[in-house]
Amino acid sequence: MKNGWPTKTLGEVLQKTETVNPLQSPDAEFDYIDVSSVSNSRFQIGATQRLKGKDAPSRARKLVRANDILFATIRPTLQRIAVVPENLDKQVCSTGYFVLRPRVGIDHRFVFYSLFTESFMGQMESLQKGASYPAVTDGDVKAQLIPIPPLPEQRRIVGILDEAFEGIATAKANAGRNLQNARALFESYLQSVFTQRRSGWAASTLGEVCEFVGGSQPPKSVFSKTKKADNVRLIQIRDYKSDNHVVYIPRAQARRFCRADDVMIGRYGPPLFQILRGLEGAYNVALMKAVPDESKLRRDFLFYFLKHSAILQYVIYHSERAAGQIGLTKETLEPYPIALPSLAKQQGVVETIMELEAETQRLESVYQQKRVALEALKKSLLNQAFTGQLYRSTDATSARAV
């Protein structure tokens, strides 16, 4: 800590706030700030509810004023933190927030930024209690330490952080837009390939060139988490996202098998229509294998055809209208039209799609790396700010270029 900066608890630098009971004024209207009203990406209050006192929920009890800081004590590590704007002055927030109102001589945004430091959030993580809804108390928040430089220094630090964080937010938004544009370009190409009429492409239906084979469901009593010589992996939809729930079954109980390059369809949702591949084993009833007639249809061409958005919309539309139907069936897919070029041209189409997909994935990786770098920059700036080491450096003022 920089010499000469006193350290105090948050409780020592905050004013007392007010509580209210809207039920006492049943016809008076107010804006209610629920815990879900605060965005933990923009750190702003979004949509509020306009209520009459008689309709107020039991948690609507805290009066807020402009420039108060709201900190959600329920799931505190989610960082639902925001400054109350002028238009919400004297409105009401949930008791799920701790309301911080700094005393005279304390810049409210200096306190706001202190809530994002690693030291503060680390304490919140260690102090939270409860399994389903981990939470901290108002007293836990009040007990946290904060350095208190002179007010001019607080304002200088806030000015640097405001400028730097605005640049970081802009950089994140630009990276996000680039990624969205790449994804949109990829989807647009899939649409153009598979929905436009092309000369020389033979009209058919999926049922004429492809067989859909549903999975089977062994009893849970035979499930095992241990790999043995006489068992096989049971592939479930969730396995395509993580390896946290790998299950094996006796080979004698396995009925349907898939290879890593097979085209698999998730029959249940949301999302209802997932096109999957990459795993090998027996597959359960929640999956369906698409088996192409390889004299007419390449497996990779089928894979990308099933991923274009027009067929997804078709599946959703027909599934919603199939009375009594649970999940996607082959009867829904078989009539869907498909136009096929020669196998050689299918290969060329697939190669172009894969190149575009690889570029989209590269941009996804760049975007994630940039997000990590920007978050690391934020942490570094906050650490410097609250240890007296933040100066108007190139790093602080050029965050837009990161």
Write the topology of this structure:
Layout: E1 7-9, E2 29-33, E3 49-52, E4 60-64, E5 69-72, E6 81-83, E7 91-94, E8 97-100, H1 108-114, H2 118-127, H3 138-142, E9 145-147, H4 151-195, E10 202-205, H5 206-209, E11 210-214, E12 231-235, E13 247-250, E14 257-258, E15 263-266, E16 274-276, E17 281-283, E18 287-292, H6 299-305, H7 309-320, H8 330-333, E19 337-340, H9 343-385, H10 394-397
Parallel strand pairs: 2-7, 12-17
Antiparallel strand pairs: 1-9, 2-3, 4-7, 5-6, 5-8, 10-19, 11-18, 12-13, 14-17, 15-16, 15-18
Helix pairs in contact: 4-9
Protein described:
The chain is 35% helix and 19% strand. By secondary structure, the chain is of the alpha+beta class. The protein folds into three domains: 7-148, DNA methylase specificity domains (Adenine-n6-DNA-methyltransferase TaqI, Chain A, domain 2), CATH 3.90.220.20; 149-200 and 342-402; 202-340, Adenine-n6-DNA-methyltransferase TaqI, Chain A, domain 2 (Alpha-Beta Complex). Helix 4 packs antiparallel against helix 9 (343-385). Residues 394-402 have low confidence and may be disordered.
